[in-house]
Inverse folding.
């Protein structure tokens, strides 16, 4: 399975619009892996997680035909994960998207925003409201939505994804996982784990994981055998406010067997 990290930043992007912090200044100078757009991952061209405002740019940058996406999983309603207005671009009158429906999976609030954006337009989406911990067979994968601790006003979801014989934990925006999610993960095994490390060295781990939370999660996974032999663990969804450049993140996570994602990275499982 091909895993394509299309974007790897939190809401603000790096370097962030307007920002004059040292990290943004250095990221502007260095470019390359320090240039991060809002987070999304594509699996094999037909399964995508989240629909950020940089989706049009991703299609230019990577030469992607977004109409090849059969299943779109939405984690939550924050605008770096769902720019609902652009979902209308696939509706009749804006696109000739053909007969094939794009199936969209998510919880209440993302769907409400998408329906508002579609505003009665004729469209070819099929919406599937998922329930945490209830597996769903999509067109391209078996998915299990898991609970995150990210926004107390919304049911935010992580996804376990089984596709072409490979298993992935898509873990952002997660915060420190709720107990139910730890319990579900206990007897599972993954080929790829994607975790968020939005906040760097800050002292708390609610809403977003910090460095320590990521390291503890990796240690737990090693201990309970949640990682298959040769499994890969990646961190993504970085904020400039963490004050860490790509090189700093590699220094922090490399010794722990955790790899740092960057925009455009392709991983073959
Ligand atoms: Zn986010
Ligand atoms: Zn900044
Ligand atoms: Zn969020």
């Amino acid at each position: 399975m091909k895993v394509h990290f299309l974007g790897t930043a939190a809401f603000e992007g790096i370097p962030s619009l307007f920002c004059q912090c040292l990290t943004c200044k250095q990221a502007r100078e260095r470019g390359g892996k320090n240039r991060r757009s809002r987070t999304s991952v594509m699996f094999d061209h037909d399964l995508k997680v989240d629909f950020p405002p940089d989706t049009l740019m991703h299609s230019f940058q990577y030469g992607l035909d977004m109409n090849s996406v059969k299943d779109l999983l939405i984690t939550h309603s924050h605008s770096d994960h769902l720019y609902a207005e652009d979902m209308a671009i696939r509706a009749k009158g804006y696109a000739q998207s053909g007969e094939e429906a794009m199936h969209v999976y998510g919880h209440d609030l993302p769907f409400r925003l998408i329906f508002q954006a579609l505003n009665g337009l004729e469209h070819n989406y099929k919406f599937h409201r998922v329930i945490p911990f209830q597996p769903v067979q999509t067109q391209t994968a078996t998915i299990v939505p898991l609970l995150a601790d990210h926004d107390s006003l919304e049911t935010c979801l992580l996804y376990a994804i089984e596709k072409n014989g490979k298993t992935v934990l898509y873990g952002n925006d997660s915060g420190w996982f709720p107990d139910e999610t730890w319990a579900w993960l206990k007897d599972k095994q993954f080929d790829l784990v994607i975790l968020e490390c939005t906040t760097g060295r800050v002292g708390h781990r609610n809403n977003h994981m910090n460095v320590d939370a990521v390291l503890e999660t990796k240690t737990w996974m090693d201990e309970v055998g949640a990682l298959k032999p040769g499994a890969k663990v990646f961190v993504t969804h970085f904020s400039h406010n963490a004050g860490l450049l790509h090189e700093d993140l590699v220094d922090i996570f490399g010794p722990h067997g955790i790899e740092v994602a960057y925009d455009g990275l392709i991983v073959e499982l």
Remarks:
- Residues 62 and 249 are 24 Å apart (CA to CA).
- The first strand starts at residue 2 and ends at 7.
- The chain has one domain: 2-268.
